[in-house]
């Protein structure tokens, strides 16, 4: 490989620099953008299992819940109730496309600020809701906030972090999501005990706390060197790069950033550009990874956890307590991924986590089938229920150190600068679209597929694990603007990338394949 690049074993350069306190704190503040998404996932399931909330807004569900002989699988099957949960994700899907423009034109931090502020207004509306319409408008505003934050935060973290620690710092976003979920579940547990029946208002209004944290925090965040260069602030970008790397020796990395930003500036239409053949690998991952992430079935466990555990025969408080247990597992397993992702790599975690999830889903489905059969009528002894919760926890752990964090990390680190905001928007919108579909359909699917729902998701986890094994190259330790080298050396994706599409430090890299003339031919075929 020519071009003067010092290439590490993973296929990218090793730049000098260390993890400075400045970078650590900016990444922690930015990662708090994950709190709003996590809090919402955790809060909505708990609130929708609270009787005063159901009685006020969804009386039909409340009546069905009171009937003793109700089919356990079907008692929460109500389209309006599902719309309450899922409207947020539809709003986030649409918002992420607008967020791409804001992120590109104004920088990453203002996208985070806008997201936090909108979420704050949505939280106030939900806490004061008088009718279903007010509830759903509040949810839509929350969704716009989530769309902006999820679009900008992972990109910000990937750009600020040194290459060899990018996985660890980026997973801070997922860790904040899991902390948000756990905090919401603990709050639900407490507010459910409020005798006056307004606990649900407290739960929904407290979403203003994580929103306030990211709204204020974003005001103090610096812009990333990549974003500064993209917007034409070259001197500021050099100063910022020097500051975040903690060294004067930034020449090589800065040259690569300049090359990337010059290429980005030539791109007038990133949305049209992303469809070009040379970006086929990145586009495929930006669609398939979030699609698969939702079909792991995790959101079923997370935002319907209390409803699900109540359906499995746990009573009120017990169902909320069980979801707190899974929330704790989620947080601790995400911490495991923070310390392993840059050592073991992305692929190892994806493949191990996938295998663990399949086994657990098959076991849980079988255990539920044995007690409730297809009629959905039955009960679950304490010891038996504990085994179900145990396997759900092992499943959550598998997700939390694989598809959970990596579903956000990998798409945010694989795109070249010229299409990065557009690529991240596709990632967020696909994620939100399928979250919406699952949220809207889950309670109906549970009613009709019964225990088979767990087998349904297990089948998808098998497919996604094979997909990762075949098509995702290892991206650990590769500088973000050097990622094209990884795709160029992959057995399948190399056919889509011509030699002249591969740049490093402003000079073209001649790949080994150029010796036999296959590069150009493959890219145009």
TrEMBL record:
UniProt-listed Pfam families: Sugar_tr
GO cellular component, one term: membrane
Residue ranges of domain Major facilitator superfamily (MFS) profile in the record: 26-476
GO terms, molecular function: monosaccharide transmembrane transporter activity; symporter activity
Keyword Cell wall biogenesis/degradation: no
Record-annotated membrane-spanning stretches: 19-39, 86-103, 110-129, 135-157, 169-190, 202-221, 283-307, 319-341, 348-372, 384-404, 425-446, 452-472
Keyword rRNA-binding: no
PROSITE patterns with a match to the protein in the record: MFS, SUGAR_TRANSPORT_1, SUGAR_TRANSPORT_2
Topology in membrane: Multi-pass membrane protein
Protein keywords: Membrane, Sugar transport, Symport, Transmembrane, Transmembrane helix, Transport
InterPro entries tied to this protein: MFS_dom (IPR020846), MFS_STP/MST-like_plant (IPR044778), MFS_sugar_transport-like (IPR005828), MFS_trans_sf (IPR036259), STP/PLT_plant (IPR045262), Sugar/inositol_transpt (IPR003663), Sugar_transporter_CS (IPR005829)
Protein localization: Membrane
Top-level taxon: Eukaryota
Recorded family membership: Belongs to the major facilitator superfamily. Sugar transporter (TC 2.A.1.1) family.
Name of the protein: Major facilitator superfamily (MFS) profile domain-containing protein
């Amino acid at each position: 490989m020519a071009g003067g690049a010092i290439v590490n074993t993973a296929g990218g350069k090793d730049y000098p620099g260390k993890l400075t306190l400045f970078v650590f704190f900016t990444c922690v503040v930015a990662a708090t953008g994950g709190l709003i998404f996590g809090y919402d996932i955790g809060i909505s399931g708990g609130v929708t299992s609270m009787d005063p909330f159901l009685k006020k807004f969804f009386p039909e569900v409340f009546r069905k819940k009171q009937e003793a002989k109700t089919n356990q699988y079907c008692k929460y099957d109500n389209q309006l109730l599902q719309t309450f949960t899922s409207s947020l994700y539809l709003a986030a899907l649409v918002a992420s496309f607008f967020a791409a423009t804001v992120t590109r034109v104004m920088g990453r931090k203002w996208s985070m600020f806008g997201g936090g502020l909108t979420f704050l207004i949505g939280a106030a509306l939900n806490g004061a809701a008088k009718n279903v319409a007010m509830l759903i408008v509040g949810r839509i505003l929350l969704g716009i906030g989530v769309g902006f934050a999820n679009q900008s935060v992972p990109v910000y973290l990937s750009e600020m972090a040194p290459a060899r620690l990018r996985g660890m710092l980026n997973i801070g976003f997922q860790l904040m999501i899991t902390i948000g979920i756990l905090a919401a579940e603990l709050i639900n547990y407490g507010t459910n005990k409020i005798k006056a029946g307004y606990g649900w208002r407290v739960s929904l209004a407290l979403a203003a706390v994580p929103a306030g944290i990211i709204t204020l925090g974003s005001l103090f965040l610096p812009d990333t060197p990549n974003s500064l260069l993209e917007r034409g602030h070259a001197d500021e970008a050099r100063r910022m790069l020097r500051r975040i790397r903690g060294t004067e020796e930034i020449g090589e990395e800065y040259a690569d950033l300049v090359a990337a930003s010059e290429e980005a500036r030539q791109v007038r239409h990133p949305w049209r550009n992303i469809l070009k053949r040379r970006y086929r690998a990145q586009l495929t991952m930006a669609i398939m990874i979030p699609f698969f992430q939702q079909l792991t079935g995790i959101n079923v466990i997370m935002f319907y956890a209390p409803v699900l555990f109540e359906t499995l025969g746990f009573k009120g408080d017990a169902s909320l307590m069980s979801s707190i247990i899974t929330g704790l597992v989620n947080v601790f397993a995400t911490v495991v991924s923070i310390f392993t992702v840059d050592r073991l790599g992305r692929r190892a975690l994806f493949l191990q986590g996938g295998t663990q999830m399949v086994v657990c889903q098959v076991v849980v489905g079988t255990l539920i089938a044995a007690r409730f059969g297809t009629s959905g009528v039955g009960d679950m002894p304490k010891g038996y229920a504990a085994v179900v919760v145990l396997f759900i926890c092992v499943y959550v752990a598998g997700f939390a150190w694989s598809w959970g964090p990596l579903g956000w990390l990998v798409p945010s680190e694989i795109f070249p600068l010229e299409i990065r905001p557009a690529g991240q928007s596709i990632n967020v919108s696909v994620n939100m679209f399928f979250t919406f579909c699952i949220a809207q359909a889950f309670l109906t699917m549970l009613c009709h597929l019964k225990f088979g729902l767990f087998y349904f998701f297990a089948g998808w986890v098998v497919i996604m694990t094979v997909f990762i094994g075949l098509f995702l190259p290892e991206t650990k330790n590769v500088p973000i603007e050097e990622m094209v080298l990884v795709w160029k050396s992959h057995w399948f994706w190399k056919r889509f990338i011509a030699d002249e599409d591969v740049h490093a430090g402003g000079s073209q890299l001649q790949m080994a394949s150029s010796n036999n003339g296959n590069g150009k031919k493959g890219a145009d075929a």
